[in-house]
Amino acid sequence: MLSIIIPTLNEERYLPRLLKSIKKQDFKDYEIIVADAGSTDKTLKIARSQGCITTGGGLPARGKNAGAEIARGELLLFLDADVILPKNFLKKSLEEFKRKDLKIASFCLLPINKNKSHHLVFNIFYNFPTILLEKFLPHAASGILIEKELFKKISGFDETIKLAEDHNLARQAKKMAKYGIVRSTKIYISARRFKKDGWLKTALKYLFCEMHMIFKGPLRSNIIKYEYNHYSKSKEDEV
Hints:
The protein is of the alpha/beta class. It has a single domain, classed as Alpha-Beta Complex (Spore Coat Polysaccharide Biosynthesis Protein SpsA, Chain A), CATH 3.90.550.10. Helices cover 39% and strands 21% of the residues. Strand 1, helix 1 and strand 2 form a beta-alpha-beta unit.
């Protein structure tokens, strides 16, 4: 079984799209766990109406860990609430994961919208570098597929990290097992954080975080302010 774990906080606008894309998948042997950080909108109502298992969460790392604690699957798939899975995503991902004998994997990302310049930005500044550095410096954002046994061995996500706890998880896991980028499919993500904060500002924030991780270690201070509920109210929808 595959356990799909989604941390949420006031995601009534985006969660239904993700759940709909999961329900359309050909692969059906999964459970969906929504780890909620105290939503005041209809997030939990939506999750439960769609047959999701719900549990308490917190910041993303805490929510993901909470979901993993009750997961029944041998494989865990962590997804951000504002993503959409393309057709046959689960089937293609699991087949490639098994064929390559991976223990942890992540994915290339593209914005949901059809804007060619936005797609180019994602390819140049995330996808190409991620593939280029696959063997040396793992990255993992918006979607992570990992064996539960390995997840437990590395003690899950480090909840003391303020930003990029997902990249840190991939780098810790690679020390013990085989990591790779799934190439047979991609994850489509909302560009809401880029539109709300600005493309340049967001890019510089993640670049700073990357440099900090490489030269000083994971970012555990509040030098970069992170607000979990900052993007959920955005009116910028690309579908």
